[in-house]
Design goal:
211 residues; 5 strands; binds cobalt (II) ion; 5-stranded mixed beta sheet; alpha/beta; 2 domains
Length: 211
């Protein structure tokens, strides 16, 4: 819905309240009780990748963190705090990293361009490109190469989750799993990259093991 002005947003809010109460007079009483979502969703800030639309979710279903190109950066206190709260306090069961084809952040990251303040952030994605340079450079079509980098970026960010203390601890306690998804906005389809949490953890924990 494209709002022409701020007033329309508040008008819509009033209509939304009426609709919720018509369907369930106790809706806001229930909503204001403690949240207990089972999913942490880490997605791109792109306005077209609405978590609620992608997951068909309602308020209370998903704990959400979004940034440019769904990056899990080791020194991002915001991301680390969200992971800590979701895993240790809300005790979500599933951690989802969801990228999307046509991601502007991913495209910019592999283009020779000075993006000023964004350079260090986009560098995270250039690192993914370097790790998978041979595979990516063997893809002739530039669009297919972008698509594959979107997928590889999701997988690397899933791996970055395993590198964090809170996720490692929860994996040892066998109470979470990690999922890598891509949203294809050309078709609306949500694609599961079938990230194998146990297998990847086994492969990398000899290096990244904290405990
Ligand atoms: Co994006």
């Amino acid at each position: 819905m494209a709002y022409k002005n701020i007033k329309e947003i508040f008008d819509h809010n009033e209509r939304w309240i009426e609709e919720q109460l018509a369907a369930d007079p106790e809706y806001f009483v229930k909503l204001s009780k403690r949240q207990k979502p089972r999913y942490l969703f880490i997605g791109c800030s792109d306005s077209r990748v609405s978590t609620e639309a992608v997951m068909f979710a309602k308020p209370g279903d998903v704990f959400i963190h979004r940034n440019i190109a769904n990056v899990v950066a080791n020194n991002d206190l915001n991301m680390l705090s969200v992971i800590n709260y979701a895993v240790n306090h809300i005790k979500v069961k599933h951690l989802v990293v969801c990228g999307h084809y046509g991601c502007g952040g991913v495209k910019t990251a592999i283009t020779a361009s000075d993006e000023g303040l964004l350079n260090p952030w986009l560098r995270n994605i250039r690192d993914v490109y370097r790790l998978h340079k041979d595979e990516l450079n063997s893809i002739q079509s530039i669009n297919e190469r972008y698509d594959r980098l979107v997928e590889l970026n999701v997988i690397e960010q899933c791996i970055n989750l395993i590198k964090t203390r809170d996720v490692q601890k929860a994996l040892l306690e066998k109470r979470i799993s990690i999922h890598g998804w891509v949203f294809d906005m050309r078709t609306g389809k949500l694609i599961d990259l079938k990230f194998n949490t146990k297998k990847v953890a086994r492969e990398i924990l000899d290096i990244y093991n904290i405990f």
